[in-house]
C-alpha cells in the first residue's frame, strides 16, 4: 500500500516543490503577521489597560507578576471599545496649523451651569512647534493625546495605522471623549507620595542656627503617614485650635506626585488664613466610600476668613477625582504642582528604590523594548508625567480658570514668586514672601524661616530632595522625545510654557 506521504518522489517533482515552497512561505508570513499584531497590541496599553504599581500584598499584582514592583493590568469592555474606536496618528503630521480648536464645555458647567460664565476656552500655543508643526489655537482631545502616546513610540507608526485624528472642535462640540479608560485610577498606593513636614535639617557651618522654639513652623508629626495608615484616627494638625469649625476644603493640591506638593503646602501653612490637614487624606481616590462627613472630620478647624486645604497628589491621575470633587463643591480651587516629567519620573523611581532596593534599574523599567526604543508608558512613573492626558480629564469638570499650575522648578528657584501666584489665586493677602524663605546650602533647597526671628529655619525631611541615581543620557534623550509632544500639548492647554525642553541637564 502506498504511504499517505508521497515523500521524496513528490518533493522531487517540480510543480509540487513550488507548492511546498509557497505553503512554507505563507506559514512564515502568517507567523510574521501574528507576531506584528501581538507586538502592536502590546504597545497599545494606554488604550486598553491601566497598569499600576501596587504595594506588596495589595491587589492582584502578584497574580500577574510581570514586574517585581507588582504591575497589574485591568481591562474592561469600555477600554476595548475605546480601543476599537480609537484612531491613531503619526505625531502631529496631520495637524492643520490653521485650525481653530475650542475646548469642550466642562461637564460640571454643562450640568450645573454655574461655574463661571466664560465661553469655552481656546488657547494660543505658547511654544510654537511640536516637531515643527503644532501651532495656533487648538485644544487637544484625549483621542489625540492617546494617538500621540502611540506615535511617540516609534514602532507604532506604521502606514496602515496612520489615520488623522485631529478633529476641529467648535465651541458647540460635544465634550471630549472621556479619559476614564486611561487615567490611573488606582495609582500605586504604598509607594505613593511621601508626606513629611518641615524638619530642622543640618545646616552648613555658616548656616548653623539654634534650635527652633517649640511651636515655630510647627511640624505635624502625623504628616509622615497617609490617612490609610492611620485608619480612622483623629488627624487634626497639632496646632489646630479648638475653636472654629471643620469645613470641607475650598482648595486642594491635587498633584502631581513628586512635583513639590509638600513644599507648597507647608509654605501655604505659614499663611494665617490657611489651615491645612498635614496628612494626605486620599479621600477622592481611596477613601471615598467613607463619606464626606469622614472627610470633613479630618480637617482642621477654621474661623471666618480662613480657608481649609489638603493635598493628595494622586488625585491628579485618578479618573473619578474630578467628578467627585466637583460633586462636593463645583467651585473648589485646584492646584497642580508640575515638574519636568523626566525629573519627576526619576524622583518617583528614586522613592520606590529607597523602599525596594531590589527593583530593576530605571533604564530597564522605562522601556518595553530598549532596542526598538519603545518606551513603556504603562509604567506609572512615566505615565504620571503625561500631564496633558490627565488634565483633559479635569477639564471636563472644571474650567481652566479654577486650576492653578505651579512650576515645581520655580518653587525651588523662586519660592516667593510662586507663592505670590498661589496666594492671588486663592484670594489671600500676599503674606508669604521672600522673607519667609531661606536657601539651605546643605539641603540644596529653600527652607522656611520665621521673618522676625532669624534663629531658625525649617527644611523638608530627608525624603524630599533625595539624590537621584545617574540615568543613562541616551535614555534621557529618548524620554525627551517621548514627552515632547505631550509637554507641548500641556503648554497649549494651560497657556503656559514650563520650558522643560530647555532643561538640558537632568538632576
Ligand atoms: N523646599 C523644598 N525642599 C525639599 N524638596 C523640595 C522643595 N521644594 C520642592 N521640592 C521638591 O519636592 C519633591 C517632592 O515632591 P512632593 O512633595 O510632591 O512629593 S510627594 O509626592 O508628596 O511624595 C522633591 O523631589 P526630590 O528632589 O526628587 O526628592 C524636591 O525636589
UniProtKB/TrEMBL annotation:
A GO molecular-function annotation: [heparan sulfate]-glucosamine 3-sulfotransferase activity
Region (Disordered), start-end ranges: 55-123
Pfam families linked: Sulfotransfer_1
Residues reported to bind 3'-phosphoadenylyl sulfate: 258-262, 339, 347, 464-468
Disulfide bonds: 447-459
Active site: 258
Keyword Transferase: yes
Skewed-composition ranges (Polar residues): 55-65, 85-97
Extent of the signal sequence: none
Keyword vocabulary terms for this entry: Disulfide bond, Glycoprotein, Transferase
EC supergroup of this enzyme: transferase
Residue ranges, compositional bias (Low complexity): 73-84
EC number, as in UniProt: 2.8.2.-
Occurrences of domain Sulfotransferase (ranges): 249-484
Protein family: Belongs to the sulfotransferase 1 family.
Protein name as annotated: Sulfotransferase
Gene name of the encoded protein: LOC117369363
